[in-house]
Structures are given as C-alpha cells and as structure tokens.
Structure prediction request, 599 residues.
Amino acid sequence: MDWNAFHLSLQLAAWTLVLLLPIGIVTGRWLAKTQTRARPWLQAFFALPLVLPPTVVGYYLLVFTGTRSPIGEFIMSWFGVSLVFSFPGLVVASILVNLPFAILPVQRAFEAVSNELHDAAACCGMTPWQTFTRIEMPLAWPGVLSAAVLTLGHTLGEFGVVLMVGGNIPGETRTLSIAIFDRVQAFDPLAAGRMAGFLLLISLVTVALGYGVLERRGQQRQKSA
Amino acid sequence: MLSIFLEHDSPFLGVDFQLPIGTLSAIVGPSGSGKTSVLRAVAGLLTTERSRVSFDEDIWSNTGARCFRPAYQRPLGFVSQTFGLFPHLTAAENVGAALTHLRRRERSREAQNCLDIVGIGGLADRRPNELSGGQSQRVAMARALARKPRLLLLDEPFSALDHSTRKRLRVELKRLQDALAMTVLFVTHDLDEAAELSETLVLLRRGKVIQQGPTRELLRRPSTVEAARLMNFVNLAKAKWAGSDASGITLHWGDVLLTAAKGPKSQPDDTIHWTIRTSDVFLVKDNHPNESSLGTILPAKVVEVIEMGSSALVSVIVNNSGGEVLRLQLRPGALHRHHLSKGSSVKIALHAQAIVLLDPSDASLSANRAKSKL
Prediction:
C-alpha cells in the first residue's frame, strides 16, 4: 500500500473540493438564473470534460500551461511555480476536469427554486444576498452536497488528466490511481489489487454517505408531509 | 394617492391612474389583460420601459428621474396567487422571514402575533406542505402584514381556494382592512369578488384602463361598450339620438321613444349605444298605466325563458324596437306568477335613470379593425 500516494490523493481531493465548490455554486447559480443567449454554449463548455477523453483535456492543459506557453511563463514569473509535473498543476487540472460535476447539480438545484419564491423574498424586504443565504441555499443544498460528493469521488479516482499533466513523481504527483497503474506495469498485482480495493472502498463510502444524508433529508420531509 | 403610470412593450402596458389611500381597490380584467404585470410593476418586481409609481409623497419609481427602488426597499406586502410560502420554513418562520430587521426573540414573538391576527396562531410550527389552501393563504397574508406595509398587494388571492373558503376569507380580508385601515390593491378576474370587496375599481383590458372609479358607480354606469361588456352587461343596444331637454336625452330605438336621464352630447340621428342592467328591466302588469314612476312602459314579447336556480333570465323583444333582445332577471316565483313562457305578451318598464348611454369609441375601433382585416 502506497500511503504517500493515498495521502496525495486525499490532498488533491480536498484542495479541489475547497477551491471548486465556491466556483460551482457561483457559476451554477448564475447559469440557473441568467437570460443570456450564450447559455447553451457556456453549458456545453462546462460539460465538455464529461464527453472529452481525459487525454485531450490533459493535452490542452500541457499546451496552454507548459513553461513555454504565455500562461505558463506568466505563472512561473508571478508565482514561481510550474503547472506541469507539479502538485499545483494537478489541482488546476483536477478543477477543470471536475467542473461539470460541481456545476451541473448545483445549477439544477437552483433552477428548481421558483421565481415566485424570489419575488416573495424581495417583498419580505430581503436583500438579494439575504434571499440567497436564507432561501436559495437552504433549498438548493442537496444539489450542492451532490456536487461535493461527485467532485470528491471523481477526484480520488481521476487518472488520465493526472497522468498527462502530473506524470508519475512519487510524493509530488503520484496519486493512488497512478500508483495502481504503476504497480500493474511492474507486475505487482497484489499491491495493485490492495490499492484498487482500498480506493473502491473509499469511493463507495464517500458516495454512500452523501446519498445517505440526502435520503434521510428526503424522508424527514416526507414524514413532515 | 397611490399613483401608477406604466408603459411597456412586452407585455404591453399603457396605464395611468390614481387610487385613494386607506381603501381597498381592485383591478379587474380578463386573462392576459396585464393585471398581474401592473401589480408586479407596483411591487418593483417588473421593470417597465417608462414608469412613475408613487405612494403619497413617496416616489418608488420614476424612469424620467432615473429613480427605481427595488422591491425589498418598498414598504409593501405581496400575496401571490399560489402564496409563495418558503417550503423549508415553518409558518412562524415564514412570517419571521419578513421581520429580519428584528432580533430573534422579538421576531418570533411578532410572527406569532401576526399569525394570531389572521386566526392561525396554533399552526405556527407547521410547514407549508402541512397546511390547507386556506391556511396557506392566511400564512401568506400574515407574512405580508408582518412588516406593517403601507400598501398590501394581492394577486388573485382567492383563486386557488375552494368556494366556501374563498367566501370566508373575503369577509376576513374586509374585516382586516377595516381594522388596519390599510391601502389594499388586489387583482382579480372575478367581477363579483371585486364588487363585493372594493371601494374603487379599475377595469383593465389589453394593458389599458377601460374605466376607473368608485365601484358602486362604475358597476351601475359603464362608460363605454367595452366596459359594459367586461362588466357582463348583456343588454347592449343601438338607438338614434333624437334630442335633449331638461328631462333628459330622447332616443329613437326603432320606432320606440326612450328617455335616458344623462349621457354624452350628440347630434340628431347619430347612433348611440346604450345599456341597462338585467335587474333594472321591470316586468309590469297589463293594466299598468303607460306613464308611471317606473319609467317608460313598453309592450314586448317573450322569446326565451331560462330558469337558473334562484333566478330566471327572460329575453324579450320590445314591439317596434327593431328586433334587439332585452334580458331581464326575475325570481322563479315571479316567473310563475306572471305565467311567463316563450311567446307570452308582456309589458316592461325602462327607467330613464337606469338607461346608460355608452361612448361608442371602442366599438367603432373594433369595427374599423374588422374592416381592415377584411
């Protein structure tokens, strides 16, 4: 069992979740309420990682954030880090790949909050921020929780983009899924199997816990009905 | 005064009217007439291309002066057709949502007070999905009243309720308005509801005000053919202007001479539209003198009798009138007392005060429209 890789996977999942969830909430809420004609294009853009092979996303990340690219040069000169073959690069890649998992459930949840409730809140004297925190968020939180669970689970198991952008540097970019691939390549099925089983268990528990909370909430509502 | 001027292209609105403060006013119109849009614009939930809305001296919007106060800054309460209760909050919390300026303890005490006022203090801990339609309406009303608004807006507040609940809540609204002396503006497509509750009535059609005024006056005297149609005046007829003197205006209705107490000036032989309420057409006995306090007595023939529960609608054609049908409303008892049936000869009385002359402008407009379509 490669505990370093496991630790790195957890770190990556945590950073991705912390940074991506606010992005998901803001973008999902905006997409749910905007009237812009560009909405279908924006939705398509955010959903792209669902349909594109991870290698394509990884390739473009390498092209646009490589040390010889303008963006890569800018980041290197301002922050002193390279996004290629480094942990910060993995986090950026993970955020991009997980955009649909963080945005789409949140968007659907905010879409379900009717305009009538917005109007009622405004006529109750609530500012737009109060309406967001007191009415919209409590009603949309199952969508936010779904987004968090999906992002966490997907990041823990992400392989293609991580390998393309981060490579396989122990302690720096080798996550659990890369370590499994590494062990398979090294004809070490026992270690690969142990890690695969562990990842399976962790993912299952994470997703089951998320669904459990949602289901309990649903039952409470049914009981009160 | 509550002063409302709104102009908008989609949905079309072109209204400019004023309503008295401290009373209950109603906007009535058919579906799609723009009633809800007017209410939403007054609330600040709909931004129109041009607007000027003010309550007393307080200006809520004025596009000319680039002034617009958003809904949450306007001192009003709003109850929508489906009540808009927050589903994740209890009844007390729903009311408390309008009291965010108070401290928590004060808020829950005040919320409970508001629920008590509308008579559902015992349901404070229930969520909206545990409330009946009538109870939800009361919670929405308590929430709208919680901030002690200067203006209460109600959008078809009783339409989602059953008949008996609707009747009960109408009485309660009237009682509440009397007690709080609040300005209430509500929209409805139900003229009876508006007639029962409001002191001032605004008739709206296709985004325009057709007529406005004190409810009683307006219900008796529509000013245009369109207003008469909107108010279900089924007796609409045409006559020729014959002249006017101190006793009133004389009309030629076919070969029959009619007198109307008042009406717009016109020229001899001009076509005049007139109407009379079904309840103002009286049936008189055969031996009744031709001139009486009941008005002009005219012989007529019954062409249709429809009995409907507690009333009967009798259609008659006045002899030599040109064939236009007049309808009168009778109690079923009167129907049998007079032995009325299709083909019976009767005498009816039309009082000069009850005959209302109408401005035909909209009728000619619709005629022109029909011509242009052809």
Q: What stands out?
A: Chain B has two domains: 2-227, 232-358.
